[in-house]
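Protein folding task:
====================
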Amino acid sequence: MFDSLDVNCGSLSCEERLGIEEMFGREIVDIVACEGLEREERHERYARWIVSNKQRTRYEEKKKKKKDMHETGGGGGGTMSADPQDYTIIKEGEAEILMRKNEVFYNPSQVDNRDMSIAVLRTFITKRKQEHEAYLLKRTKAATKASEKDSCEPAGEAADESLMNDEEANGECEVSEEVHQDEPCSISKESVKTPEGKGRGELKPARVLEALAASGLRSLRYAREVEGIGQVVAVDNDKVSVEACKRNIKFNGSVACSKVEPHLADARVFMLTHPKEFDVVDLDPYGAPSVFLDSAVQSVVDGGMLMCTATDMAVLCGSSGEVCYSKYGSYPSRGKYCHEMALRILLACIESHANRYKRYIVPVLSVKMGFYVRVFVRIYTSASAMKNTPLKLSYVYQCIGCDSFHLQPIGRTMSKNNSVRYLPGFGPAVHQECNDCGKKFNMGGPIWSAPIHDQDWVTSILADVKSMQDRYPAYARISAALTNVSEELPDVPLFVSLHSLCATLKCTSPSAVIFRSAVINAGYRISGTHVNPLGLKSDAPMDVIWDIMRCWVKNHPVKAQPPDQPGSVILAKEPILQANFARAVASLSKAQAKKVTRFLPNPERHWGPKLRAGRKITSKHVSLLGPQALNGTVDHEDEEPTAKRQKAQEPSTNS
């Protein structure tokens, strides 16, 4: 073929000849070497190939030019840009970062998340130190007791032998669920097994891993604001993000340079290759964290902490139940409690991953804040304590006609003599039809039905936050959330909505104080919830709740409804319990009595999720970012409603 080119195309220039040879060369390779899907069935003509080849060459040159810009500091490289005006300095807490528009992901509304994480991390450092001191005291007492009992036996061996009564061979610190706070499980393997004479019993500074660092702002705040942290490892698999992180570390001075260590790696691989090396692992992905959980639970030391955020609330709250099941292993119910159920689904998923490695979790704080949920759990290793997991999980039966819901525990225990047997739970928890309205049930779960907070931790975190208000940029929001959490009933999963109950019956709503008083006067407990201002947690069964509402409707009659409506069926039954609506002393919480703000509005418009880094901002993103984000211009159409709002507010301010 190339010989025929010499004969027939001898008049072509050298450049044209090389182009034709390259085209025919690819044709020959396609015919001779390619099979199946790799072979091109229709070959391009020479004129068309020249056009596509020029486009391909232009694209490769543009890509190479962009790469050279990054390497020379023109876009997130290792050295800072020659023009400082290219960057915007963002200050949060004691850290400052250099940002360019949407180059690396940064969301200002996540300041609540970072502040809450710092508050929990400070409490963890304090409790870790206390547990270590208690552990050393226990070892000293055990050694003294053993030496007094048998002076011939070496004290060290006796101490180790006595400690083995509380520790199993499958983990350095096995702790039962009831006594986990008093056990020294935050001590790493190295600190326990250090030879005597070389700092035995010395507590090393905590190591923190931020698995998805982006700009590194969170890591920088941890390093600069939390005392007792030895090292913060910031990992990201995006080269631009890691270079930006390095730039921000240098920008924050010597403390950040000595403590924060950036890495370009896949977070999953990094955590798998560093098992039980970090005291704290922080997961804050864009979307679902499910793909990182298996490696994360292996990377935490015994008694360490896993912090995890999930922002895919539409999935967790029941918009796509099948997607939620594929990601988290649970099916959500679309009730008023859907956001709390999202928290419990996430906890159940983490527990499931931990159980595969003879580990289990102990939640210390679980919050729904804004557009995401955030959980803080401690992870322990114990094959025996892991058996209690089925006792902490339940399925949910949600009536499709009214707000009634019921929980079905997965497992139960039966004690005989000194042994405990683990058995499947009794069921079903409900009939085929709802006892209140006669409708069918939807089934969801499994969810975490055990407590999602540790009240001792919540009290300590809240006290720490109040003692240093000026160090938390989002103090008002996190203190309000912690105040609500501190007043929740810890052992009552999910909640009912008073307005939703009244919507079912088509009646006027009693005030929250009156309804709370009726529940308290009936002999049950009730509290609010941090998830929903209208939500009420109570250990009263649903038939008692509906009896109270029947008594309320008797005093406040409603219009007749069709007999097949759920509200009509519920009101057709006579109440067994006669509700007492006299105001009870405990009908108001301490925060309500002191008129403490518990639910705050968003501080500004467009406060919520943001675009992924690198995406082009277009007009369809105005609802997320605001009109000013479009090429740095402000849409003047948005100024008119603002002016109207100001004019509407003027008469009220003058009055």
Q: What stands out?
A: DSSP finds 23 helices and 17 strands in the chain.
